# Entry
Amino acid sequence: MCVGSAAIELRGITKRFGNVVANSNVSLSVYGGEILSLLGENGSGKTTLMNMISGIYYPDEGQIFINGEEAVIRSPKDAFKYKIGMIHQHFKLIDVFSAAENVVLGLKEKGKYDIKTVSERVAEISEKYGFDINPDKKIYEMSVSEKQTVEIIKVLYRGADILILDEPTAVLTPQETQKLFTVLRKMREDGKAIIIITHKLHEVLSLSDRVAVLRKGEYIGTVETAKTDEAELTEMMVGKKIELNIERATPENPQDRLVVKNISCKNREGVNVLDEVSFTARSGEILGIAGIAGSGQRELLEAIAGLQHIDGGEIIYNNPKTGSADNLRDKTPLQIRELGVRLSFVPEDRLGMGLVGNMDIVDNMMLRSYRKGKSFFLERKAPKNLAETIIEQLEVVTPSAATPVRKLSGGNVQKVLVGREIAAAPTVLMAAYPVRGLDINSSYAIYNLLNQQKKNGVAVIFVGEDLDVLIELCDRIMVIGSGRVAGIVDGRTADKNKIGLMMTKTQGGNENEQ
Amino acid sequence: MSNNEKHIHEPLFHITKRSDIVWWKAWLIRLAAIVAALFVCAVVIVTITDYNPLQVYKTMIEGSFGSERKIWILLQNLAMLLCISLAVTPAFKMKFWNLGAEGQVLIGGLASAACMFYIKDSMPNWLLLLVMLFASILGGVIWGIIPAFFKANWGTNESLFTLMMNYVAIQLVSFFIMLWVPSGSSVMGVINQVTGSGWMPDLFGKKYLFNILIVAVLTVIMFVYLKFSKQGYEISVVGESENTARYIGINVKKVIIRTMIISGAVCGLAGFLLVSGTNHTISKELAGGMGFTAIMVSWLAKFNPIVMVITSFLIVFLQRGASEIATAFRLNESVADILTGIIIFFIIGCEFFINYQINRRSKQKEAK
Amino acid sequence: MVSTIFAFINAAIIQGIPLLYGATGEIITEKSGNLNLGIPGIMYIGGISGIIGGYLYEHSTDNPAALACILIPLICSLAGSSLMALIYSFLTITLRVNQNVTGLALTTFGMGVGNFFGGSLLSFFGESGSISLITTGNYYKASLPFADKLGLFGKTFLSLGFLAYAAIIIALLTSYFLNRTRMGLNLRAVGENPATADAAGISVTKYKYLSTVIGGAIAGLGGLYFVMDYTGGAWTNNGFGDRGWLAIAIVIFAIWRPSTAILSSFLFGGLYILCVYIPGLSSSAKELINMLPYLVTIIVLVIISMRKKRENQPPAHLGLSYFREER
# Structure
């Protein structure tokens, strides 16, 4: 169906970061007038691959061809030269500038600078592709969708013929997604080559001409959209189930510990990040939370921990000691603790939230416990003992307990954090991506710790990204997508493909399927 | 070999953050900076005066330690600068840029002077001293709490706010001097010259000993407070990461305001010591720029009160030494400020070489 | 009465000019994200460099030429204050030292240099007394020839030396540069969000250096105006007073807009000398009036932070250094 040379072709691209292979021998091509979806789970290397096309990374091996000629792309500037434009997930815009000002920022055009002419050209581009944007509107007054439009116009203004969009629909409402797709189709008609990174299957099927799939850095293959279906794509994406041999005990005497009822919250742009989420976490059980990154996992845990304001719903904690049921909604972390709720939280951002990088292990141990006692002064003996116990029992590799934690490796940082949170003898333990970036041994050490807590009767909530781990470790798995609960499945009988499908299907956008 | 391509695009020098540096290396770099600074100072002085640099340094040392009186003055100046440096430190540790120490000291001093002026000898001296102490601390606290309140609630830029507060304080002092001095002269004479009411008593016959002892005790207290108290710990956490502070349930607003109360209170105390224990009068120049110098002292010492003894000594020694040079070689007093500036440039500049490391692209990597 | 008012306006403008230079320079600097608290020191340097240049020239010739009398101090002043700003830039941009500490040290240093040379320059040449460059001062003070003929208006607005008009023109040009040119746009982007500017291909380091040095040079002219025009070529130690800090206050008061800074400077200049023009004012009340500029600035600062209107905020990255690898 495609004649001539591809607008962009990758041959045997490999990229390593230290020992981690982010992309291994990836080959794919996109033609003008075509939309290619790049499909893959979190951490499958999609963004790394695209960053090599847009000049942010340079491949270790392999070649890139633009219109049939080999190209060397070492910087975003080189990428501009080859008319490649990337729309990042995190917008690079100046808040107090208008759309037009952001569009011309850093551009070395000839002729006199006149913001009016820029606005006119922006309006021209908008009309051509059907964008709905006011060039003079300030970025801080814009919705996410409008900001994204500015990013796309920025790229088009620079004359890009090859557009890469990194998860453009992750932040959009279904209606906005439809608008975006209309625009993208118009660009396709205009002869542009478009690569869209996504993991939403229905979008892939409704929009793209071909789909390339990556899994754990490996290139799996490219299929024509017309000749495939969701089942095949899911299998390509998640692969066959891998046995990990994580132990899983049967929960003993589970009791409802934390009952979350219909909680909702909005982000700054007014988009629902949590939408009527309800679930129960039981004692002696590990509840897994599966979902594409950014589907509301962080907000959910922070809402329970008292760090996120919620607009509606209840968070009921059944106190095993007193038997009372307390609502934790809109309580500060301190108030929650004063209620006698023993809630431990291993946040995603270890050094930015869970620990203080510049403080040593002992001082980090105190973060939770320093208030203890009436004394005006700190009591460092207990934390010091705790630090030494954790170092010994969890085999933390560190020169001493007086070493600042930022100097430890990722796995050891996590052991310190998890160790501290467990030491507080919690009744509820929440852990967000606790094995991210950890090697196999450290990961298993963390699984064991969680299992131990489970045996001790703790209600464990585990937010993970690796479906194999979730299926083997958790008793129940709650799948969330776009801030909604897509379903709760039993870990022992769960099917990987089914969970994958639940994750990628979002309510509201379904009308394009079939 | 796989990384060759990537390196081609990098500049000749590549700067990265150091993860670690051996302590002696860090101190070697600092020492080298001081030596280099002294060398530049010598060059400057020799260029202006044609004197033998060794002679100049000798004069400087004599200016600081030449006589018992000079040593006492040195110690007194050291104590005052140290006191104000201690005051700004808790705020800095919290990353609250209190540039208003100058004003907080002035208001403290003004409060003391007002007590001396109005109460005179109508109450016993010890009681008057207590009243003055209380009033000064209160004054400093008020001056410190206003910017803290706005910072905590609305995020008002504290460095600009505190900076402006200095000049409000200066004008307030001028206002009261005008009010108190009937002649219309802008200089306030010594207050209670005859009765000595509100004057800090001599200790063992030494005029400044009381001041020095108070500051010495305060240094230890501040060290202990920051390092061993729960509040000090909270200050460190808020300064390092507000996110972590929220995560463990610290009320960030409360900590900001509480810390600025302490900062302002110590500044007020400094004002009291300057009026009651040193000058026995008030003027716009009461703090004499020490509020700003203190910021540098605290910064150079990395907020460690004990190290601040050394850094403030360094500054005071320079200033005393330079003023001795000025007298000896009949130069202008301002030479002290020039030397202070040069030394500070070098010491703050050298921190870069402690925190960052410059990697030169190696030849091997360049060759493909 | 009318003539008093006009005299007051004239005096307010004269007082406002050094402030305007300082404020314009600081605005350019702050737009790049550098909070240069060394501006008061730089203004001293701008003054003393001009004095030294003028002194050396006046004493090297019997017949000082008008052009040289103007150009030599001007160039010396620009060079001196640029050099100071360069020290600040090197320390904060290249060595990433804390901006507040560097700025305050620079002010200490600059005032020291100013007062030192101001006090000792004559003694180096074996003279005594205080510096007074009447010839140079007169050239700087020369007003438009037809100023006298235009009555009160001429006396008030046209009788000023050329540096006064230059200040207004520079402020207007700066306003135009920041809002209407490509480089101005890039500069503002650097101060708001250097990482984004960097990604857009703007050299953050280059812009920060240039704006700080040019801003410093402009601020230095305020010092030059003060010593040459206002005092007529005479130097008194600490004569410049706290005007440098007042200039920084104006930056806030004018919410980082050079065109607004023009009238703000005259307003602050007016407040600075208002007490002289109000009859029957006690000397203590005068001091309270002198407090007004700072109080008003604080109120403005509080209001803009409470209203949170994005256009009125300080540049978002003000006071922070940028290190690409920390993104």
Q: What stands out?
A: Chain C has a mean pLDDT of 88. The two ends of chain C are 62 Å apart (CA to CA). Residues 2-326 of chain C form a domain with the ABC transporter involved in vitamin B12 uptake, BtuC fold (CATH 1.10.3470).
